[in-house]
Amino acid sequence: MAKRITKIIAALGVVAGLGIAALPISSYAAEESSQDVTVRFTINETTGTVAPSCESNTAGSTGAAGEAIEGTCDLGGSSNTGIQIKIKDKDSTTAATHTDNTTTIPALSGTANLTDSAFAFANLGTGNLPSGGAWGYKFTAGSTAGLTVQGNYGNWNGVTASDVTVAQADAAVNMNGAKFDFRAVTPVSQKPGVYSDIVVVTVTTYTP
User: What is the pLDDT of residues 29-67, one digit of tens each?
Assistant: First the structure.
C-alpha cells in the first residue's frame, strides 16, 4: 500500500521516509488546514504480494497475499491552540478502486471498530469484516500529551463521506507519534493491480 502525499495547503509541509509520510502541523493557530492523502494498495500480479509505502518511489514492507499489509502517515509539528483532527473521503465513493475503474476493495463500515487481530485475513467474513475483504484506517495519539483519541477511532474503521473527529486536544499541543495507519485485507483471489482512494485529513482549531 502506498500513500502519495500532495501538499495543497502551505501550512502543511511533507517529510517522507521509508514507508512513512509526515504531515507537520504548523506552529501557529490556523483556523483550518486540510490535505489530500491518496491511499494506494498495489497487489503484485506475479507474486500476489502487497507493498505499502508512503510514496511511489519509496520501498516499503512486503507481505504475502492474504496478509494484512499496512503503511503509516505521521502527523508532526505543533499547534499553539487546541485542535481537532478529522478524516473523510474526498467524495461519496469510499471504496479503493482498481485502475480498471470497476474492481474495488470496499471500505469497512464507519463503525466497524475492529481490533488489530480482528482485522485480519483469517477473519474474512466474520463480524464486521466482509468476506470479500476491505480497507480501513485507525488513529494513534502516540506519546502526545493532551491529544485524546475520540470514540473507537483507535481501532480500525472505514472512511466515510462526512468528516469524523478522530482526536482532540483542548490546548496547545506538540505532536509526538500521532499517526494514521491504513490497512487492506483481501482474499488471495483479489484481482492484481493498483487500487486507490483519496481521503482528506483536516486539522482545525478547537476551543473547549
Answer: 456 677 777 777 766 654 444 433 333 222 233 444 455
Beta strands in 80-185 (DSSP E): 82-89, 96-98, 104-105, 134-140, 147-149, 164-169, 173-174, 179-185
> 32 versus 196: which is more confidently predicted?
196
Beta strands 32-43 and 20-25 are unpaired
pTM: 0.77
Q: How many domains does one find in the chain?
A: 1
Q: How far is CA 110 from the centre of its chain?
A: 13
Name the residue among 50, 68, 61 with its Cα closest to residue 129: 68
Residue numbers of the domain that contains 167: 2-206
Of 135, 105, 98, 103, which is closest to residue 119 (Cα–Cα)?
Answer: 135
Cell reading at 58? 519509496
